[in-house]
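ARCHIVE CARD
Drawer: 12
Card no.: 0347
Subject: one protein chain, sequence and derived structure
Cross-reference: see card 0346
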Amino acid sequence: MGAEKSIIIGSDHAAYDLKENIKAYLLQTGHTVEDVGASGNQSVHYPEYGGKVAGRISEGEFTKGILMCGTGLGMSMVANRYPGVRAALCNGLFAAAMSRRHNDANILVMGGRVIGIDLAREIVRVFLETPFEGGRHQLRIDLFDRIP
């Protein structure tokens, strides 16, 4: 399988059940999945898991990742602190598509307490299938990379 079919995922305790469901969906659709945790519903600190995924994206080990916490807000904040990471909180299909088309997002973030499983699966599908448009949008991404 190519690098595009290899996804790294992580969550905190609040989105553990959603993570497990999304992991099963990814495997069913032919992806390989590296799950960095959490490993259950017991309370954990989301920055640890957000950092594991964002760090590996930042280092170029993976091209796509998925993070989940209760609202998705905390994971978004953590992930976007890493160089080269463009994490997008997407609790709807339009945001998932646009995050890829215009922003070349490389981490999808979702809120486990915000959306249901069926919608989450569709968001993942749209995120992974939507290409980046490039062009003027690439110029804007290049501006991201100039921010210290």
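Annotation on reverse: Helices lie at 16-28, 46-58, 73-79, 93-101, 117-129, 136-145. Strands lie at 6-11, 32-35, 64-69, 87-89, 107-111.
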